[in-house]
Amino acid sequence: MRFTKTIPHILTVFLLAFAGSLDAAALSMEGTAAIETFDSEGALATLEPKDAACRIVDAPGGAGSALEATFQAVKRPVIALRGPEAGWDFATAAGVAIRVENPGDAPVTMEITAFGKTAGGKPRTIDGKAIIGAGQSDWLRVYFSNDGRGPYWGMHGIPVIGPVSRTMPGMAAETRLTTASSVTVAVREPGKEVRLLLDDFVTFEEDSPVAFLVPMPFVDKFGQYIQAEWPGKIHSEADLRARHEKELAALEAAPVVAGQDALGGWADGPQLEATGWFRTEKRDGKWWLVTPEGHLFLSWGVNCIYPGDMTFITGRKSWFEWLPEKDGPFSEFLGSHRALMLADAIGGEGQTVRFYAMNQKRTFGDAWEQEFRSLAFKRLRAWGFNTIANWSMREALEESTMPFTVTTGSGGGRVLEASSGYWGKMMDVFDPEFPVRVDGNVRRDAAPFAANPLVVGYFVDNEMSWVAIASSTLSCPPEQPARVVFIDRLKAKYETVEALNAAWGIAAESWDAVRLPQKETSASKADAEEFEYAFAHHYFQTIAEAIDKYAPNQLYLGCRFTPVYCPKPVLQACADVVDVVSINFYLPQVPPAILSDIDKPVVIGEFHFGALDRGMFHTGLCAAANQDERGKLYGQYVRSVAEHPNFVGCHWFKYTDQPLTGRSLDGENYSIGLVTGVDVPHETFLKYVKDAHTGIYAHRQNH
């Protein structure tokens, strides 16, 4: 801020190291253009606060004026900064930033969002995020492009000195924001009233110190960030092996979590019927899983037990201080991948490397794959987990001595042409080939485990695009199978298109022209919801029949909803069919009332918390200030699951931190693992994890 003319200490050190005797204060504003400096009361006219109050105040130390913003203790208080009628011109800017001072006694998680358009006029929204420490000031910034044309592409969080901004790579070619109508600044779940000082709302260029770009290369031979140090950073192969030897000795001496039986069930709880299989049971108003031996069981699981993700090196080789040679001893860790969301940057396919797996070989030699799995099993039990969860490697499931879930899918066939979603279009469940695909997939993935009593159940699909099913279906071509079914239902009810028009308030000239009205009527709403229920029920029932056919003694765990894509008719259809409803739920804790209107057990398929104190660039979907706070949030989350009468467990996403430079699938590079990219456990965090699992059964019983 102009009232805090120094920049953060870590940046100062960086600049002194790489810019000689340059004045840090002067550098802090170089390459920027002011949008608003909050020097007069007139600036308030451009602001639209929601659950917040704003006023112009004198900056500390007499260094001009600033905007004092007081954010209320609600979920997301926000201030919108409105641009001129034609919008701000950001065509030549790398991003936009605002300086924030936090005079309070606790860190604040902040979000910045730019709303605008691309050069071609397409709407575009880009987000940034930062944690501003207690008594600290720093930049909150967002970059306008991360699609291959900026300095760093293919990463959700980028390498900067200071708080990290979040930038989602685009799925389409035209992704760069060039004009903006507004920028919002928000505080995420403050918990109490928060007072902040804002100043110097600016655009910045790529070479500006405000961008906080780092020199190349910034990735060492282990896949770690070069420009920082932290507890657990690896500096040599010997260091890597020594740390693992020390950990193995500690694991051998570590007791399992008190009160758990051999499968992680409640050893001290009631003895129920032993059926030889996992099942569900409701006792005293609370749903439970029950082990094959008849013990009550809550599933504390970990996703992605496999040796790390690939990251692209095509077009980015200058980022890395070392890469394996094509014919060298680590060439097996080179590969290629067709990008899902990064295709524009690499021409559809690019070369990849797997640092985590490479580090495993450095530690264990040629037998590293077996050693990886053996160590993972020991760790999970020592930390109090009792389930190997979704996305885990087939070999881990086959060798497991602890309960596990199996993953399969129903996709790959015809989709609803007019549908949309983050992971793609919704499948057409009324396509005649749909049950054929389901049968084949379930036979392939479930039949090999049908006789294994350690299988908790089967997840089928993940984060599907359930939103606006009825509207999407009617917007499809007339021959779309789902549309044919929907229209046939409407014909049976209304007989004529004229009768439908009267009920829906539309003017369709034929059945082929029928669309849901923009302004819904009670009839159109009821018809849409009835179809969505029928659509979803057909989907779940088809899969349930296949699981009953190939794995008749094991549980169907649903489709892993997201709260965004979980309409009530779809949720009800799911609850009417599956054994356990599943949802991926990224929040600080489970709200007591959520999903309480269905009488069915629920398991959380994914959740996590991440922090930036171990050399990573992005916190993931739920941010923590450090490893201590990660651990406290984990304990809070697990207790909230145990306290909810419907919930029967939650599964952490994921076992390892994601690659520093982003996984090749979509660029995620979240600091969300139980272990780092060099396989060093996040010990501080994991102490809280084990503590949270200790006594959790009694906590649920007595709550």
Reconstruct the topology from this structure.
Layout: H1 9-19, H2 24-27, E1 32-36, E2 47-50, E3 52-58, E4 65-71, E5 78-82, E6 88-89, E7 95-101, E8 108-117, E9 123-132, E10 137-143, E11 179-187, E12 194-204, H3 237-253, E13 279-283, E14 286-290, E15 296-297, E16 299-302, E17 311-312, E18 334-338, H4 343-346, E19 349-353, H5 355-364, H6 368-382, E20 387-388, H7 394-399, E21 404-408, H8 434-446, E22 455-460, H9 469-474, H10 481-494, H11 497-504, H12 522-550, E23 555-556, H13 568-577, E24 581-584, E25 602-607, H14 627-643, E26 647-652, H15 683-693, H16 696-702
Parallel strand pairs: 16-20, 16-26, 21-22, 22-23, 24-25, 25-26
Antiparallel strand pairs: 1-12, 2-5, 3-4, 4-12, 5-11, 6-11, 7-10, 7-12, 8-9, 8-11, 13-14, 14-15, 17-19, 18-19
Descriptive overview:
The protein has 16 helices and 26 strands. With 703 residues, the protein is an alpha+beta fold. The chain folds into 3 domains: 9-211, Jelly Rolls (Sandwich); 298-308 and 365-466 and 532-702, Glycosidases (TIM Barrel); 469-527, no CATH class. The strands form 6 sheets. Strands 1, 3, 4, 7, 10 and 12 form a 6-stranded antiparallel sheet that branches. Strands 2, 5, 6, 8, 9 and 11 form a 6-stranded antiparallel sheet that branches. A hairpin with a 2-residue loop joins strand 13 (279-283) and strand 14 (286-290). The longest helix has 29 residues, at 522-550. It starts with 8 loop residues before the first helix and ends with a helix.
What fraction strand? 15-25%
Q: Please summarize the sheet with the most strands.
A: 6 strands, antiparallel
What is the distance, rounded to the nearest whole angstrom, between the alpha carbons of the first and last residues? 48 Å
**Which stretches of 5+ consecutive residues score pLDDT under 50?**
1-27, 161-174
CATH architecture of the largest domain: Alpha-Beta Barrel
Shape: globular
- Could you tell me the radius of gyration in angstroms? 27 Å
Top CATH class of the largest domain: Alpha Beta
The total strand number stands at 26
Q: Total helix count?
A: 16
What fold name goes in the CATH topology slot of the largest domain?
Answer: TIM Barrel
Classify the secondary structure makeup into a structural class.
Answer: alpha+beta
Task: Report the average pLDDT across residues.
Answer: 89
| Percentage of residues assigned to helices | 25-40%
CATH H-tier superfamily of the largest domain: Glycosidases
The number of domains: 3
